[in-house]
Amino acid sequence: MRSAFTEELDLISEQLVQMSRLSATALRRATASLMETDLSLAQEVISDDQLIDALRRELDNRAIDVLARQQPVATDLRQMVTALRMSSDLERSGDLARHVAKLTRLRYPSHALPEELRPIFAEMATTAEAMILRAGDIIGSKDADGATELMKADDTMDRLHREVFRKLLEPSWAQATQVTVDATLLSRYYERYADHAVSVALRVVYLVTGVWHDEQLPGADDRYPGSVPRES
Q: Phi, psi (5° rounding) for residue 133?
């Protein structure tokens, strides 16, 4: 029985890693559609989001089935509950990639982003994609220390998010209101995408240590300031 339970946990972990990779691919392709005003690619991203949704449903059903059959306690229960929450984060990151593609489709044949903002968004996309892939690696290896790395990357994303707003508020900004609103929404999509990657990493910290970090950077707490211990 224990061997079967361990196999189920391993399979759930593999599915989470797969979700992270699908989400990264979705964001990369959504960004390409945005930058190139590629309607067909945007539509593919929108349609393919159902793959991530289906994988989440499969994972969640498997996890619930294991909970019902195995009735895990302590650390095993923590693993199952954490997996369910990580699947939600990863599914939502896929939704955000879909939102980018939907905005591209909505504005077609016009470009949703003015030329002056594209370099910032290209960097945001690269940062976000790398973060979600790293989150998948952290899941697979149960690397609690990886959260530190991701939260530093999130600082970069927050800086880029602020840079977008700085440009939108400059006196020289002369774009139409619609363009301003679109840029605001897109910046928020990428910023939230990165937040989900951080959330996944923090859930791995909780999984490994039994201590929840409410967006606190591991490294002090001595090591974990502001941490709230939970039952293991």
A: -65, -40
221 φ/ψ sector (left φ>0, alpha ψ -120 to 50, else beta): left
85 vs 228: CA distance, rounded Å? 18
Burial (0-12, 13-18, 19+ Cβ within 10 Å), 173:
middle
- Can you tell me the distance from the alpha carbon of 16 to that of 39, in angstroms, rounded to the nearest whole number? 29
Percent of the chain, pLDDT > 90?
A: 75
Evaluate if pTM is beyond 0.85: yes
Taking phi over 0 as left and psi of -120 to 50 as alpha, with beta for the rest, 218 belongs to beta
End-to-end CA distance of the chain: 22
Neighbours of 49 (CB within 10 A): 22
- Which structure tokens are listed for 124? 């945001």
Please compute Rg for the chain using Cα positions. 19
Spatial distance between the Cα atoms of 218 and 200, rounded to a whole number of angstroms: 14
Q: Nearest-CA neighbor of 192 among 123, 94, 102?
A: 94
* Residue that is written with structure tokens 């290209």 in the block: 122
d(CA 166, CA 112): 18
Residues 189-216 have pLDDT tens digits of 999 999 999 999 999 999 888 787 765 5
% helix / strand / coil in the chain, to the nearest 5?
Answer: 80, 0, 20
**Where do we find the tokens 């149960």?**
142
Q: Which residues contact 186 (CB under 8 A, 6 or more apart)?
A: 34, 100, 103, 112, 113, 121
